[in-house]
Amino acid sequence: MTNDKDRLISDRNNNFIICDTGKRHSKTIHDLPVEILEYILSLIPDPVNQSRFSQVCILWNELVQRLRWLRLLSFERRVLKRLPFAGSLHERHGNNGFSLLVSVMSPVLLAGTGVFLPYRENMVNDISGEIYVYEHGATQVGPHGKPLMYTSFFITRDEGRKWQENCEGSKTVCLQGPWQEFRKGKVLEDKCTGLHPLPVMFPNVAELLPDIRYLMTLKLRELKPDNGSNPASQKIVTEDVGTVWGFQGVPRRKTDPDQNFFRWYQLYKSGHSSSVSSGQFPVIYYIA
């Protein structure tokens, strides 16, 4: 029993605090032995909460990473084929790149996306690109929210052409196309034609939350050699880049419930290319 001098208080986190003549001594979960804390964290069932707990402090982050390394925590990397076909082998972007709005039905960890390159013989120069993800994207007018994720990439002409060589079924994402072949009465053969979106991963995964529309933007640049007096050291940068263009036809709900995390919305802003059923971002890499 407690008296006026020694009182037992329970806070909202069920941590018991003993107050003795004005001195407070608290016991929290951080005071547990590391072995017990590691066991508690090993009971976390889903990767989204694993990611949340890993952000509490350095110790928790190290324990979550250790449990994943020991495979005592499981997380599944998933691939969404947003655009399962190539609609065209050569389409050009808007001046401000290709953009889409996306929302999720439940929390998802976004890891990366696929990007179409200029197709084979159309890739005559090096390509660089940037991908932005912003919070609270607007469909038509108005500003967007703060940046959530950013990454950049660079691929040379030779690397790009090699990436689009016949993979003989070895690549995870090998698409068919172009879609125009269907309209000519032909049937697309089940063989590699080099339609391999380039995987571009973000430095860290980011949690996408329901009820928020995120703006995803891709900007590509082609680095052309200058034919002036010193071509070895000069590059002409142009944003007028033609690439493979993805296609899916009329958007339909996926038969696999695990593929229904994402909802896509078109952007109506000057200078941006945007389409729910075609364009860029053919593949989404995520954890859920």
3D architecture notes:
The longest helix is centred in the N-terminal third of the chain and has 12 residues. This protein folds into two domains: 64 residues, no CATH class; 211 residues, Jelly Rolls (Sandwich). The N terminus is likely disordered. With 288 residues, the protein is mainly beta. The strands form four sheets. Strands 6, 8, 9, 11, 12 and 14 form a six-stranded antiparallel beta sheet that branches. Strands 4-16-7-10 form a four-stranded antiparallel beta sheet.
Topology of helices and strands:
Layout: E1 6-10, E2 16-20, E3 23-26, H1 34-41, H2 47-54, H3 58-69, E4 77-81, E5 85-92, E6 98-104, E7 108-115, E8 126-134, E9 147-155, H4 157-163, H5 180-183, E10 198-208, E11 214-225, E12 235-238, E13 242-247, E14 262-265, E15 278-279, E16 283-287
Antiparallel strand pairs: 1-2, 2-3, 4-16, 5-13, 6-11, 6-14, 7-10, 7-16, 8-9, 8-11, 11-12, 13-15
Helix pairs in contact: 2-3
Key attributes of the depicted protein:
288 residues, mainly beta, Jelly Rolls, 2 domains, six-stranded antiparallel beta sheet, 16 strands, 14% helix, 36% strand, disordered N terminus
Please write the string of helix (H) and strand (E) elements: EEEHHHEEEEEEHHEEEEEEE
For the largest beta-sheet, the strand count, sense and barrel status come to:
6 strands, antiparallel
How many angstroms does the end-to-end distance come to?
A: 48 Å
Q: Give the fraction of residues assigned to helices.
A: 10-25%
Alpha carbon gyration radius? 25 Å
Which band does the percent of strand residues land in? Answer: 35-45%
Count of β-strands? 16
**What does the overall shape look like?**
globular
* Low-pLDDT segments: 1-22
Number of domains: 2
CATH top-level class of the largest domain: Mainly Beta
CATH architecture of the largest domain: Sandwich
Structural class from helices and strands? mainly beta
Q: Kindly report the name of the CATH homologous superfamily of the largest domain.
A: PHR domain
| CATH topology label of the largest domain | Jelly Rolls
User: Averaged pLDDT, please?
Assistant: 78
Number of helical segments with 4 or more residues: 5
